[in-house]
Amino acid sequence: MKAIVVGCGRVGAALATELKSGGWDVAVIDEREEALGRLGENWTGEFFVGHGMDVPLLKSAGIEAADAVVVTTDGDNTNILIAQVAQRKFNVSSVVVRLLDPRRAEFYRSLGLNVVCPTSSAIAGLKAAVLGDAAVEVA
Predict the structure, then answer these.
(1) DSSP characters for 70-107?
(2) Is residue 136 domain-resident?
(3) Residue 35 falls inside a structural domain
(4) Of the candidates 65, 101, 63, which has an alpha carbon nearest to the alpha carbon of residue 82?
């Protein structure tokens, strides 16, 4: 299985290393070369320096054969565009995008993007904790 992770911050790096540990062929794209350090010194996957909207870079990373693309940069607009390129131009079967704005997350979810919104998850978890929901696990 081939995955491309765009954005090598804490979330992207952790996901990339977990997928790699699970046997996936993983390519990571980030604008900053120093982000490679987040993957650890034993990283055996690929790492590309550049912008995730760069189509030739996406091709070099293997998007034409990718089973999954996960977009985790710190910019919602960037994430939406990259996810749409992966989904519409390259027909990647599993495209997952992180969006921080709950309103945008709901809108793009309604358009068919697979959206993860940590802000919405945090709000729901915090509300449940305040209301005393014993089933809520607070990390």
Answers:
(1) EE--S-HHHHHHHHHIIIIIS--SEEEEE-S-HHHHHH
(2) no
(3) yes
(4) 63
∠ CA 14-3-120 to the nearest 5 degrees?
55
CA distance 56 to 27: 14
The number of domains in the chain is 1
User: Which of these, 85, 53, 63, lies nearest to 2 by C-alpha position?
Assistant: 63
- The residue segments making up the domain with residue 105 are 2-130
pLDDT digits (tens, 9 = 90+) for 61-70: 999 999 999 9
Residue 87 included in any domain: yes
Which pTM value belongs to this model? 0.90
Enumerate the β-bridge partners of residue 116: 98
Distances 139 to 85, 125, 129, 134, 136 between C-alpha atoms, Å = 35, 10, 11, 14, 10
Residue 58 has which token pair?
């996406």
pLDDT digits (tens, 9 = 90+) for 11-22: 999 999 999 999
End-to-end CA distance of the chain: 31
* CATH number for position 83: 3.40.50.720
